[in-house]
Amino acid sequence: MTCRLSVAAAILAVALSILSGCSDDPPTAPAPTGTTTPPGGTSRPVDTPPSPVDIEVPATSEGMAALLQAGPTTGSARVGRTSVTGDVWWINVNCRGGGVLTVEAAPVVSFEVPCNDPIEQARNQFDLGEPYDIEVSVEAPDGTEWALLVQQ
């Protein structure tokens, strides 16, 4: 009878060690949660910064047609060529990242846009009184992100 109890006790001990999940691996830390608990305090939500807003090409205004658009991009770029009539036309720019953007619609206009955080939005209206073929380009510092729309 003593032998049976010893065997039963040994089997029970092995079974318990298997069920208890013993391993040589170190315990893992729990995954971080959205709360924090200061010493002696109560838990509170952790402030998370807002996700950055993406630069987008400005929207075409109602009743207008998009003639050229570019971006989002960074640094300097040639946007392209188009023709504008003698009526009102616009160059709209969204930018951020510091520095100053220089927009040129050669051979007729050039202007600067300061690019700050959050996104700077500039709308520039032109009425030259006669049609022009223009070539649009942007000069910008390497870290300045921008998007542009020419519309009429």
Describe the protein in words:
This protein is mainly β. The chain has a domain at 66-151: Sandwich (Jelly Rolls), CATH 2.60.120. 12% of the residues lie in helices and 42% in strands. It has a four-stranded antiparallel beta sheet, with no helix packed on it. A four-stranded antiparallel beta sheet has the order 4-9-6-7, with no helix packed on it. Strand 6 (100-106) and strand 7 (109-114) form a beta hairpin. The chain is globular, with a radius of gyration of 33 Å. The termini are far apart. Mean pLDDT is 79; it is low at 2-10, 12-20 and 27-38.
What is the secondary structure topology, with strand pairs?
Layout: H1 2-19, E1 35-36, E2 44-45, E3 66-74, E4 77-84, E5 89-96, E6 100-106, E7 109-114, E8 120-126, E9 132-139, E10 145-151
Antiparallel strand pairs: 1-2, 3-10, 4-9, 5-8, 5-10, 6-7, 6-9
Provide a concise account of the structure shown.
This protein has one helix and ten strands, in the order αββββββββββ. The protein is mainly β.
Task: Pick out its properties.
4-stranded antiparallel β-sheet, single chain, 152 residues, Jelly Rolls, mainly beta
CATH superfamily of the domain at 66-151: Galactose-binding domain-like
Radius of gyration: 33 Å
Biggest sheet statistics: 4 strands, antiparallel
| Helical residue percent band | 10-25%
One letter per element, helices H and strands E, the order comes to HEEEEEEEEEE
